[in-house]
Design goal:
The chain contains 8 helices and 2 strands, in the order H-H-H-H-H-E-E-H-H-H. By secondary structure, the chain is mainly alpha-helical.
Length: 274
């Protein structure tokens, strides 16, 4: 992938993210005006949550978590384009893939609108599979950033991303979705929950270990900082995907922003003199 084509792809992706954001806002305004929103059921993804006021289910926390991830993806894409426009960084392409996974969370914002979650419709199942595709794709993009960003692999970026996305889509299509069970965090119930959770944990550990290994191998301290930044931002991302209260919302946003800032900043330092 040449620098020119990479920048073109990122700009097109940014335009697509802005279009999704505008569309989401229009749909929300139309629903608000027509008063067609139906509150989600108060069924928690985690049954063992403390019975405290601060952990109380709140629709705003759920809706804003999904909306924020779309805004975050668009803003971070814009900053990344401006920061790495003249930098031969393969990692930023994979990071953009993670931002695409964040955009896949946008359909959660639509669950309460027009009572979509009550219909058990094909559209609800489709949105659920889009969300699940993003959640499988997110950890893979960082693993690729850690192990497939070398000079000798630069020409394979498109292929690696495409294959990873295709695998995520196939798995998300195969795994059954139960649209009759909807949680307060705007998530439907999926099959093989334990298996996919273990898979994501393994990918998380492999990614962190790969960044640390590369940091020692190349003696680049920035890669070590990027490993910890990845851990923080990914934990924030995971929290936001299951947010149904203000505690999760605040901690999720704080971790995602703090980790992202450090990840991008250290990535920029890594290529500053290259």
């Amino acid at each position: 992938m040449t620098l020119k084509s990479r920048n073109l792809y990122l700009r097109l992706f940014f335009c697509l993210s802005v279009l999704c954001l505008i569309t989401l806002c229009v749909i929300f305004i139309m629903s608000f005006v027509s008063k067609n929103a139906v509150p989600l059921p108060e069924k928690r993804f985690f049954d063992s949550m403390p019975d405290w006021v601060i952990f109380k289910i709140h629709p705003f926390a759920t809706n804003f978590s999904a909306f924020f991830m779309l805004v975050y993806a668009s803003a971070t894409l814009f900053i990344s384009i401006r920061t790495f426009e003249n930098t031969q960084s393969s990692e930023i392409v994979f990071f953009a893939g993670f931002l695409g996974a964040c955009i896949c969370e946008a359909p959660r914002f639509l669950f309460p609108i027009y009572g979509l979650w009550q219909n058990n419709s094909t559209l609800l199942i489709f949105f659920s599979r889009v969300i699940f595709t993003g959640r499988l794709f997110a950890p893979i993009t960082f693993l690729l950033a850690a192990i497939a960003s070398g000079m000798e692999q630069r020409q394979d970026i498109e292929r690696n991303l495409t294959v990873s996305l295709a695998i995520s889509m196939i798995i998300a299509t195969i795994i059954p979705v139960n649209p009759t069970v909807v949680y307060a965090s705007a998530n439907t119930e999926y099959g093989l929950t334990s298996t996919t959770s273990v898979l994501r944990i393994i990918l998380f550990i492999l990614t962190f270990a790969s960044f640390i290994f590369n940091a020692k191998k190349t003696e680049a301290v920035e890669l070590k900082y990027m490993a910890f930044a990845f851990a923080i931002l990914f934990i924030g991302y995971l929290i936001l995907t299951v947010t149904d209260n203000f505690v999760f919302l605040i901690f999720g946003i704080a971790a995602l922003l703090a980790g992202s800032i450090q990840f991008v900043a250290n990535l920029h330092k890594l290529y500053l003199w290259k």
